[in-house]
């Protein structure tokens, strides 16, 4: 599952719009984010890991790396 789909699911579960996420991310990072800017970063696959971590934190999650069993 790609980041775009995962983010849509998490936002739906938390009842948060992309506009609200952009507002919260702006407050968290002291940078200017808009819904359009976030959509663009996600669609271009140019969203940074730090931005993903901040989004996860805002939504009440953490990113964990887990070794894949082969």
Biggest beta sheet summary: none
Q: SSE string, helix = H, strand = E?
A: HHHH
Strand content: under 5%
Question: Which regions are unreliable across 5 or more consecutive residues at pLDDT < 50?
Answer: none
Class by SSE composition:
mainly alpha
- Rg estimate, integer Å: 12 Å
**Secondary structure tally: strands:** 0
Distance between the termini: 19 Å
Shape label: globular
Number of helices: 4
Helix content: 55-70%
Overall mean confidence score, pLDDT: 95
Could you outline the blueprint of secondary structure elements for this entry?
Elements (H helix, E strand, L loop, with lengths): L2 H12 L3 H12 L5 H9 L5 H11 L11
In short:
By secondary structure, the chain is mainly alpha-helical. 63% of the residues lie in helices and 0% in strands. Helix 2 (18-29) packs across helix 3 (35-43) and helix 2 (18-29) crosses helix 4 (49-59).
């Amino acid at each position: 599952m790609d980041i775009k789909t995962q983010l849509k699911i998490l936002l739906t579960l938390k009842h948060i719009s992309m506009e609200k996420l952009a507002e919260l991310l702006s407050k968290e990072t002291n940078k200017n984010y808009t819904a359009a800017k976030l959509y663009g970063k996600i669609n271009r696959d140019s969203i940074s890991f730090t931005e993903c971590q901040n989004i996860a934190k805002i939504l009440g999650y953490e990113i964990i790396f887990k070794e894949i069993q082969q």
